[in-house]
Write a structure and sequence with these properties.
two-stranded antiparallel ribbon, 149 residues, 48% helix, alpha+beta, 4 strands
Length: 149
Amino acid sequence: MAIGMFRAIDVSASGLTAERLRMDVISNNIANVNTTRTEDGGPFRRQLCIFQARKPFARWPLMDRQKPQQIGYGVRVASIMSDQAPFKLVYDPNHPDCDKDGYVRMPNVNIVHEMVDMITATRAYEANVTCINSAKDMFNSALGIGGRR
């Protein structure tokens, strides 16, 4: 039982780590909403976090011997990939990065979409904090029950 109790915190902690990285990536997208020239030469491309279920660690030897159940081990960011959506074209013949027709290729970042993603990442982060706090409260209650005789 103790292993399961601590694993509940570990699973939520993996969610905290993943959502924190997701919020950092979203913040970077927002910061580059007007970046028309990167080191690669083109406009900034929106970045996305790809989440993946974590595999059991070697430190969970008892869990590996269980019957093949689908038990959660948490989540991790498997990769950060570039969004391949097309760039926005904006007519601005005075911009230094415009083409011969006066159009500037702008990043494929949509502020509204980024803000929605930021809200969902924040809510997921808060949910994981709530799970950790609930687990701590249950541990304290269990210790209190065991101490009463």
